[in-house]
Design brief:
The structure is a homodimer.
Chain A lengths: L7 H10 L6 H12 L6 H7 L5 H13 L3 E5 L5 E5 L6 E5 L5 E4 L2 H13 L3 E12 L1 H6 L3
Parallel strand pairs in A: 3-5
Antiparallel strand pairs in A: 1-2, 3-4
Helix pairs in contact in A: 3-4
Bound molecules: manganese (II) ion (2 copies) and zinc ion (2 copies).
The structure holds a DNA duplex.
Chain lengths: ~140, ~140
DNA sequence: GTAGTTATTGAGATTCAGTATCAATTGAGA
DNA sequence: TCTCAATTGATACTGAATCTCAATAACTAC
């Protein structure tokens, strides 16, 4: 038994909690994201939602990132990707072949930061960590 | 006594080793980078080098990244930054106020990856870690 | 040193992601 | 239902990065 996936209602509630209006377009964006099972780009999402303007898709993605409903991450070449966020504080592994995103918590990461706190001059205000993988499915499909 | 800074000759040698021609423009780019004491953007470098075309600056930066002479990293908002690379394998702390970049080695980071190797389905092919800080100088200059 | 080959260059066009504008629309509370 | 600020979308715009291609210059061989 694994963690229950975030439903689209959580996302809508998060937008409401932020004092935002629940519009048809925002529902469409949330519903489309809910169908995703891998990372996706803003542009892909936009062209898949014919009823919703491009600018609105970008605006909504930004709102959802701010509301911690989705995460914005990046491939090795910098291409921005989005993925639903299902775990409180976490990092990501991204399959560079198929875009599959896994979230992971690892206390060791936090230990790194604590150790840096001593080494580094100044105040730590944030961090980013992404692990790039070739997922099992992709390893198999390339014939071993 | 700290590690000797990489000189511009190392960079030139790296380009030679890659079988590339040593041109006046590439010397200018390398020399300008050598003067930097913080992270910089490609565009800033380009507009500072009047004698060198913009496209050439971008091309040279890419070559230097491939040659491990400089590192390409990113601010929290995704803005690409470059910085000279002086340590073998490392990660970065970036001051989001002044752009100062520190490189650090931390064996704990590598330990994180080893632990992930067990958790994660698939093969790890790379990773990225950036720590965002407010450096001591910036903390002070903002009046505590 | 000269000549030949070919990598490199620069100006400008082009692409692409993302943002700004602003008049028209609409959600949500009163 | 009424009201009005929030939201939307078409489109223009920005800025980073890449592409094109004729002109140039770095290396190599002689
Ligand atoms: Mn996430
Ligand atoms: Mn570096
Ligand atoms: Zn995969
Ligand atoms: Zn600073």
């Amino acid at each position: 038994m694994t963690t229950a996936p975030a439903s689209q209602f959580d996302a809508i509630a998060a937008l409401e909690d932020a004092g935002l209006r629940i519009t048809g377009q925002r529902r469409q964006v949330v519903a489309a994201i809910d169908r995703k099972d891998a990372g996706f780009t803003a542009e892909a999402l936009a062209s898949e939602l014919d009823g919703v303007g491009r600018a609105t898709v970008y605006r909504t993605l930004k709102l959802l990132v701010e509301a911690d409903v989705i995460c914005k991450l990046a491939l090795p070449d910098g291409t921005p990707m989005y993925s639903p966020s299902r775990v409180e504080h976490h990092h990501h592994s991204v399959c560079t072949s198929c875009g599959a995103v896994e979230e992971f918590r690892d206390s060791t990461v936090e230990r790194v930061l604590r150790s840096l706190n001593r080494e580094i001059e100044g105040e730590i205000i944030g961090h980013r960590m992404e692990v790039f993988i070739r997922c099992r499915a992709c390893l198999i499909s390339t014939d071993e």
